[in-house]
């Protein structure tokens, strides 16, 4: 198979990108079409091809790259939900007689009047912002300490796995004891040592432990917090309160840009990570004001 190349093939781009010859002409015109070389772009971040096809085409090995995704985890979560979820959970979201929910607009207005609901929105905004920022900049964070992109990929995967396990392991204890605040506090406080490790660790095994601890405890607060928010905001519908939480979570991406802005000229993210540590301390103070709903003690 011949390799077609164009001026795109130069010392900066090696090997050449795939191109195809196309004709461009004015409809209805008798003038000949202009022949151009068009760059082929699949639109994908990465494209996987069978190795035998590459061998037939004479593809040249350049380097090894790693990809990671969460689609498998999403499918596993769906299976676990179908297998374990119950229509009538042992811990109801409200006392008997208060099952009727307000209309969406009325519930939205009511949620905004509940101080404890606002407190959790702030905690969620900080926590998810830090998690997204770390996952976005993980390679740049550890590169100055001599770690490779492969190490960064492994670190990000460990953080995600820790988060999934934390979200599965910790919430049942909260449901069994009908306590929310203490477990949200536990998650935020124990996230701090993990973030300190990611900020200063110079050994890979300590980085892995720190990433797992951070993911495990930080993400464990999310399902507990969503349940807490639905309890303190009732009779606001759970869909409304959780929708507001998800909206705040989307807005937390701003911390990714804050981290980029705080990067030092030599590429260090230490100032941004110290800011994240400070925000976690603020979260601890906020959680102290998030008292459990009275009926969870029944």
How would you describe what is shown here?
This protein is mostly helical. The protein contains 11 helices and 2 strands. It has helices at 51-56, 71-84, 104-111, 115-142, 149-169, 171-177, 181-200, 204-233, 238-251, 254-261, 270-287; strands spanning 19-24, 34-39. It has a two-stranded antiparallel sheet. Helix 7 (181-200) packs antiparallel against helix 8 and helix 7 runs antiparallel to helix 11 (270-287).
Structural features:
11 helices; 2 domains; mainly alpha
Stretches where pLDDT is under 50 for at least 5 consecutive residues are 1-11
What's the order of the H and E elements?
Answer: EEHHHHHHHHHHH
The first-level CATH class of the largest domain is given as Mainly Alpha
Count of separate DSSP helical elements:
11
Count of discrete domains: 2
Name the CATH architecture of the largest domain.
Up-down Bundle
Mean pLDDT: 80
Write a compact overview of the structure shown:
The protein has 298 residues and is mainly alpha-helical. The chain has helices at residues 51-56, 71-84, 104-111, 115-142, 149-169, 171-177, 181-200, 204-233, 238-251, 254-261, 270-287; strands at 19-24, 34-39.
């Amino acid at each position: 198979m011949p390799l077609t190349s164009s001026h795109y093939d130069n010392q900066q781009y090696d090997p050449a990108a795939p191109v195809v010859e196309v004709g461009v002409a004015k409809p209805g015109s008798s003038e000949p079409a202009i022949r151009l070389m068009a760059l082929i772009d699949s639109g994908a971040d990465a494209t996987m091809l069978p190795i035998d096809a590459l061998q037939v085409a004479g593809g040249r090995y350049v380097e090894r790259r790693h990809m990671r995704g969460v689609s498998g985890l999403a499918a596993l979560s769906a299976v676990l939900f179908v297998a374990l979820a119950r229509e009538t959970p042992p811990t109801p979201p409200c006392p008997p007689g208060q099952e009727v929910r307000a209309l969406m607009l009325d519930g939205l207005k009511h949620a905004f009047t509940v101080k404890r609901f606002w407190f959790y929105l702030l905690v969620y905004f900080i926590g998810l912002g830090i998690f997204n920022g770390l996952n976005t900049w993980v390679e740049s964070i550890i590169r100055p300490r001599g770690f490779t992109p492969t190490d960064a990929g492994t670190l990000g995967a460990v953080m995600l796995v820790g988060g999934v396990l934390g979200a599965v392991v910790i919430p049942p204890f909260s449901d069994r004891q009908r306590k929310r605040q203490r477990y949200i506090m536990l998650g935020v406080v124990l996230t701090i040592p993990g973030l300190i490790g990611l900020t200063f660790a110079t050994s890979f095994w300590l980085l892995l432990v720190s990433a797992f601890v951070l993911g495990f405890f930080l993400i464990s607060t999310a399902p507990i917090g969503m349940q807490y928010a639905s309890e303190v905001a009732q009779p606001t519908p759970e869909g409304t309160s959780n929708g507001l939480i998800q909206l705040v979570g989307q807005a937390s991406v701003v911390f990714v840009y804050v981290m980029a802005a705080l990067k030092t000229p030599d590429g260090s993210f230490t100032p941004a990570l110290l800011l994240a540590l400070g925000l976690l301390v603020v979260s601890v103070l906020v959680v102290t004001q998030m008292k459990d709903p009275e009926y969870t003690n029944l």
